[in-house]
Amino acid sequence: MKTTLSVIKADIGSIGGHIKPSRALLETVEGYVRENGRDLISDVYVSYTGDDIAILMAHHRGPNDADVHKLAFEAFMKGTQVAKAQGLYGAGQDLLKDAFSGNVRGMGPMVAEIEFEERPNEPFLFFAADKTSPGAYNLPLYLAFADPMFCSGLILSPKLGKGFKFVIMDVNYTEADRIIELNAPEDLYDIAALLRDTERFSIEAIYNRATGEQAAVVSTSRLRNIAGKYVGKDDPVMIVRVQGDFPAAGEMLAPFAIGHYVAGFMRGSHNGPLMPVPHNTHVSYFDGPPIVTCHALCVHNGKFTEAADPFDHPFWRSVQDRIAEKALELRRQGFFGPAMLPYEELEYGGIVERMKDLEKRFQIRPHTE
Ligand code: 13P
Ligand code: 13P
Ligand code: MG
Ligand code: MG
Q1: Residue 103, class by beta-carbon neighbours within 10 Å (0-12 exposed, 13-18 middle, 19+ buried)?
Q2: Enclosing domain of residue 319
Q3: Helix (H) or strand (E) holding 84
Q4: Residue 211's closest CA among 168, 167, 246, 180?
Q5: Of 355 and 207, which is predicted with more confidence?
Q6: Residues, beta carbon < 5 Å, ion ligand 3
Q7: Which ligand places an atom closest to the C-alpha of 91?
Q8: 87, 133: one domain
Q9: Is the pLDDT assigned to residue 334 strictly greater than 70?
Q10: 267 in ligand 2 pocket by Cβ < 6 Å?
Q11: Which tens digit of pLDDT belongs to each residue from 204-238?
């Protein structure tokens, strides 16, 4: 029997701004899923990253199962009631609909799902990021699955030597899913050419080319494109199977030491470096910096082990210090140039209105020879 891992994540309200969910909110969401998911799912693991709550579920019903999606959506609805009762900021922020209708995709929450026949041991990493967008995972995935400078297994293990297939989505296309499949290593430069544009192209999935087995899945929807206006960043989640036919856990973690700059810092409108942090870390400086948590688990017969916390390790302290320096360095130039996102990406209507007013005040003057 195949096992499905489904992670469904939403911001349904937070304390003191976009900082973290309240304890009551977390307890409500987890309690609802445990209580109502007894006959549906085999296990659940709830965590938060910044102001986002992620529900990771194991079950045997396959991706896009209406009942599993409904369970998570209704847990978030229930949580929203608590958020409202507590007067939390942004109560129900990511829930764009009042009632569930078939599939939680397009209704606000981020979703990533993967189905596989469990290996005798099935280690995987679940990542959640806050104050950024799905393209934030492009670089670490590229480095872990296509670059032997980061993934020594591409050279050392025959199981990885045929390379990986990347499925990349054009997230600006909203009428349907617009995707392209490219193979590493042959298509490396094409993959890189797309992945550099993190606001438009996002890795959706990665497969081992020798076995056809799926290695990774990323949530790809952009709230902006769903809602047509700014309602918060997309704060993506991903699941990566590791070891054996896939990169080792440590090969997948290594690229996060770069602290690469991503979009989504403060008001979803600035660039900032992505900082790896321990489980259940809130945001702080300038509503950030953008953060990512990693939850390492094994799943066996649909049951999770406890989660290990790879970014909660002395190694990452100096990395975090360096990334804080990178954040401060870019913040020194405030709104200027690459510190703020390009105009087309600015999520707030305010600047759009301002530009409209300014357009009217421009004057045309003939060239003087
Ligand atoms: P979230 O998308 O995490 O809610 O953050 C929104 C924001 O604008 C923070 O400044
Ligand atoms: P407010 O307009 O409620 O301050 O929201 C701004 C926001 O979400 C950025 O953090
Ligand atoms: Mg928020
Ligand atoms: Mg968030």
Answers
A1: middle
A2: 120-369
A3: helix 66-86
A4: 246
A5: 207
A6: 11, 18, 51, 90
A7: 3
A8: no
A9: yes
A10: yes
A11: 999 999 999 999 999 987 766 666 665 656 899 99
Q: Tell me, what's the pLDDT at 348?
A: 66
- Start-end of H helices in 108-187: 138-146, 153-156
48 and 156, same domain (yes or no): no
Q: Is 345 exposed, middle or buried (0-12, 13-18, 19+ CB in 10 A)?
A: middle
What is the average pLDDT across 156-183? 94
Question: 250 with 286, same domain?
Answer: yes
pLDDT of residue 93: 93
* Pair 55, 11: CB distance under 8 Å: no
Task: Answer yes or no: do 179 and 201 share one domain.
Answer: yes
Which of 96, 109, 88, 97 minimizes the C-alpha distance to 234? 109
Query: Do residues 318 and 229 both lie within one domain?
Result: yes
Q: Would you place residue 352 in the very low, low, confident or very high pLDDT band (cuts 50, 70, 90)?
A: confident
Which residues in the chain belong to E strands, given as ranges? 3-10, 43-49, 52-59, 110-116, 123-130, 164-170, 179-183, 201-208, 214-218, 237-241, 261-264, 270-273, 275-276, 291-300, 303-304
Same domain, 238 and 315: yes
Q: Which atom of ligand 2 is nearest to the CA of 267?
A: 9
Which pTM value belongs to this model? Answer: 0.96
- Among 117, 133, 156, which residue terminates a domain? 117
CB of 187 sitting under 6 A from ligand 1: no
Task: CATH number of the domain at 89, please.
Answer: 3.30.70
Please say which residue of 117, 151, 172 terminates a domain: 117
Q: Are residues 68 and 183 in the same domain?
A: no
Within this chain, do residues 305 and 337 fall inside the same structural domain, yes or no? yes
Contact yes or no for 340/268 (Cβ under 8 A): no
For range 248-277, the mean pLDDT: 97
